[in-house]
């Protein structure tokens, strides 16, 4: 007995020695390896010594008083939009952060949404993490496959391993399109990216009144009202949930700091906001976009957020002068800007509620607040004339002015998926050239950003003008918390962090820039910053669905000395051709280094490239159960394809109305349903035209096979089709779809079986319009 006990004690001592070495390994490897047991194990509990497991908190790892983190990311927001950076829209919450800390006026993004978000979370360039473009336009090359690799773990994953509670509210556009359905896989959803809780939407944008809500991995319908009883709005709902989570976190586990990532769908289209907010801006933009830019430019200089010698860049020739427009167009466009301003102000107000909550909890002093006013420049995707329905832009379908005039009094409401004209986006990006999508110029990539952390940043209300990029956020947070980026995460060797910490500039306004080189590329638009100079080449016009072909290897490069020319107003390419060549060569070197190649200038055409994984490719028959919801990325592609929709139902003697199959809703889509006892096929051409085919008589009762046969005129975009309706193989109705949706049916709504979620396909029924009979299954057969 004595020898056995002694042998056990020797083994324990050896394990204890090994544990000391595991601590060093833990700094490079996450999760850290299990250490040896430090207690004593005898033959029974009486001669043994237990060790109480430790809570996973930063203090467990030797980090004392770790700060909370709140990152606010506004969508599609220009440098000259927020009042904090000279815009005409009051943004007191952003003011509050800036006045309580710092504002950065040379902070940059990637020019497009999900690429910026991937770069933010990983601390690596967007192409380095497979996000050179939105995932829906991925092309199967390493820099463009839409997949954040396991070798580029997020800083949220790192923080979680150190005991942080991480919660994400709002937009998650970093899930590959083909992985967004109920079958996942979920390793690249919010949980797989390092978050304990998610509440928001998965995709590029969503309806603010009828959002495609997801809680963790479950799709759900929004409540009827916000928590205070006011009519539902997504941004308010997100704030309600974030506030509840922060309070609960500190109530339950005050030892654990929180990291809240608040990524609104605002101010991306659709521009939807309560009417009382719109009323605050009535008449304020009647002077138009040219006047807005001039007045904003003056405010920016007065506030000191741009240098006194900065120049205002001129309006592009392709954008109309405000005074050249007819009165009815000016009326529509001014109203669209009023709605957008209200949307911006409302969003900032909700952010203010988060700040109030943190303050009330006594946590504001030790909370790092990073408020990013944009993931790219303001969006010109509304085209030259603005949109009542954003889906018209993505499908290259023109909207008549009459649609806009008819919608004048209801813009911003649930009736519309509206977007303002490109010239307003240009104005929001004052004083820079261009807009979202254009990575070559600061109108697409420079965003206002403010940071406050009273306990860690001594300065108050100061400006910082060091050149930085969104990839610099992750290393900044890790440095100030005191965490080393792991060499290995979840068993996978990690790519080096490509960002540089910004902490050196927190208390030194004159600190020398540590980011000396940064490439930019998006949709073929190319740029490179190096030591105060920048070369820029524009491939296409962002307010057009496609642009003329151009040689991406021989672009018309411009040259700017941005150290002295804040707004990229003075092109020096002709004066310094040798500098242009030097920087262009460096651009291609950086492009090769960070997986930017091959360059690709296609836009909507890339949405149809078949180089992405598919759950439906190669299949011709799809049989779905009742009450199934599928995002478009996981649904069969029926656009300009001959197909039939077959529903096996039982209709009781008194009849049964309701939805059998639908994809999309109020802003574009099609569906097969029973209304007033008749079978109806309805096709909504993104609100511009509608085609309704219904049976001549009421349907029989009992077991019935209902069918719609869609025979396309041609397998090509916009093709029309003949539609024939059947009941038990007997033709009961026939009609035409004269023009069809070519590119994308919907951005956020789902394919629904047996009911209709989101918005209704037609407004003469209310969602969910569940089928009242028995629906056995729905089968889609592709010809």
Defining key terms:
Arylsulfatase, C-terminal domain; 783 residues; signal; six-stranded antiparallel sheet; ten-stranded mixed sheet; 14 helices; EC 3.1.6.1; 22% helix; Sulfatase_N; 31 strands; alpha+beta; Arylsulfatase; single chain; Alkaline Phosphatase, subunit A
Question: What's a quick, concise take on this entry?
Answer:
Helix content is 22%, strand content 21%. By secondary structure, it is an alpha+beta fold. It folds into 4 domains: 52 residues, no CATH class; 448 residues, Alkaline Phosphatase, subunit A (3-Layer(aba) Sandwich); 84 residues, Arylsulfatase, C-terminal domain, CATH 3.30.1120.10; 162 residues, Sandwich (Jelly Rolls).
Explain this structure to me?
It comes from Botrimarina mediterranea. This is Arylsulfatase. Its EC number is 3.1.6.1. Belongs to the sulfatase family. GO terms for molecular function: arylsulfatase activity; metal ion binding. This protein has 783 residues and is of the alpha+beta class. The chain folds into four domains: 52 residues, no CATH class; 448 residues, Alkaline Phosphatase, subunit A (3-Layer(aba) Sandwich); 84 residues, Arylsulfatase, C-terminal domain (2-Layer Sandwich), CATH 3.30.1120; 162 residues, Jelly Rolls, CATH 2.60.120. 22% of the residues lie in helices and 21% in strands. The chain is built from 14 helices and 31 strands. The strands form six sheets. The chain has a ten-stranded mixed beta sheet, sandwiched between helices. The protein is globular. The relative contact order is 0.13. The N terminus is likely disordered.
């Amino acid at each position: 007995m004595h020898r056995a006990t002694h042998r056990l004690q020797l083994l324990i001592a050896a394990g204890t020695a090994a544990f000391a070495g595991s601590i060093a390994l833990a700094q490079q490897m996450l999760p850290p390896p299990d250490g040896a047991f430090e207690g004593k194990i005898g033959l029974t509990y009486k001669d043994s010594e237990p060790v109480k497991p430790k809570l996973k908190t930063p203090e467990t790892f030797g980090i004392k008083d770790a700060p909370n983190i709140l990152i606010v990311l506004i969508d599609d927001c220009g440098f000259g939009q927020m009042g904090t950076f000279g815009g005409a829209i009051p943004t007191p919450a952003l003011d509050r952060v800036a006045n309580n800390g710092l504002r950065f006026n040379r902070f940059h993004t990637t020019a497009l949404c999900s690429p910026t978000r991937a770069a933010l979370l990983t601390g690596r360039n967007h192409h380095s993490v497979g996000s050179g473009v939105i995932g829906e336009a991925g092309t199967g090359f390493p820099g463009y496959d839409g997949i954040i690799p396991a070798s580029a773990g997020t800083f949220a994953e790192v923080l979680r391993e150190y005991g942080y509670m991480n919660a994400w509210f709002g937009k998650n556009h970093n899930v590959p399109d083909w992985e967004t359905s109920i079958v996942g896989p979920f390793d690249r959803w919010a949980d797989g990216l390092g978050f304990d809780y998610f509440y928001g939407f998965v995709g590029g944008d969503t309806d603010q009144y009828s959002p495609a809500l997801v809680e963790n991995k479950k799709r759900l319908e929004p409540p009827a009202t916000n928590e205070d009883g006011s009519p539902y709005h997504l941004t308010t709902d997100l704030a309600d949930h974030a506030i509840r989570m922060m309070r609960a976190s500190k109530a339950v586990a005050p030892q654990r700091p929180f990291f809240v990532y608040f990524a609104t769908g605002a101010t991306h289209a659709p521009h939807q906001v309560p009417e009382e907010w719109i009323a605050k801006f009535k008449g304020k933009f009647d002077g138009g976009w040219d006047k807005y830019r001039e007045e904003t430019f003056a405010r920016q200089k007065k506030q000191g957020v741009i240098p006194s010698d900065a120049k205002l860049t001129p309006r592009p020739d392709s954008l109309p002068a405000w005074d050249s427009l007819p009165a009815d167009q000016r009326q529509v466009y001014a109203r669209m800007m009023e709605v957008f301003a209200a949307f911006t102000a409302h969003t900032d107000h909700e952010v203010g509620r988060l700040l109030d909550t943190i303050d009330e909890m006594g946590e504001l002093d030790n909370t790092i607040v990073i408020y990013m006013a944009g993931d790219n420049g303001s969006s010109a995707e509304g085209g030259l004339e603005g949109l009542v329905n954003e889906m018209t832009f993505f499908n290259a379908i023109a909207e008549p002015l009459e649609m806009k005039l008819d919608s004048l009094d209801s813009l911003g409401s649930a009736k519309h998926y509206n977007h303002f004209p490109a010239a307003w986006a240009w104005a929001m990006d004052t004083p820079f050239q261009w807009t979202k999508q254009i990575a070559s110029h600061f109108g697409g990539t420079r965003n206002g950003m403010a940071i406050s952390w009273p306990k860690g940043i001594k300065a108050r209300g100061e400006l910082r003008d060091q050149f930085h990029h969104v990839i610099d956020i992750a290393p900044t947070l890790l440095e100030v918390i005191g965490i080393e980026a792991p060499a290995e995460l979840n068993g996978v060797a990690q790519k080096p962090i490509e960002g540089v910490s910004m902490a050196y500039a927190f208390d030194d306004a004159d600190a020398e820039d540590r980011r000396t080189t940064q490439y930019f590329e998006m949709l073929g638009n190319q740029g490179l910053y190096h030591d105060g100079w920048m070369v820029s080449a524009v491939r296409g016009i962002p307010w057009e669905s496609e642009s003329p072909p151009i040689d991406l290897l021989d672009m018309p490069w411009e040259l700017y000395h941005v150290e002295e020319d804040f707004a990229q107003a003075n092109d020096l390419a002709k004066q310094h051709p040798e500098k242009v060549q030097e920087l262009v060569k460096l651009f291609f070197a950086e492009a090769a280094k960070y997986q930017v190649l091959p360059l690709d200038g296609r836009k909507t055409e890339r949405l149809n490239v078949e180089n992405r994984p598919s759950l439906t490719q190669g299949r011709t028959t799809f049989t779905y159960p009742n009450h199934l919801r599928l995002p478009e990325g996981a649904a069969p592609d029926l656009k300009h394809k001959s197909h039939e929709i077959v529903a096996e139902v039982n209709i009781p003697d008194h009849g049964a109305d309701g939805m059998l199959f639908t994809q999309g809703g109020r802003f574009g889509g099609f569906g097969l349903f029973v209304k007033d006892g008749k079978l109806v096929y309805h096709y909504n051409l993104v609100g511009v035209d509608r085609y309704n085919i219904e049976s001549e008589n009421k349907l029989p009762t009992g077991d019935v096979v209902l069918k719609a046969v869609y025979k396309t005129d041609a397998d090509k975009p916009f093709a029309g089709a003949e539609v024939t309706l059947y009941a038990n193989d007997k033709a009961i109705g026939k009609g035409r779809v004269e023009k069809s949706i070519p590119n994308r049916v919907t951005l956020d709504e789902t394919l629904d079986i047996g009911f209709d979620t989101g918005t209704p396909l037609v407004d003469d029924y209310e969602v969910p319009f569940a089928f009242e009979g028995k629906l056995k299954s729905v089968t889609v057969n592709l010809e």
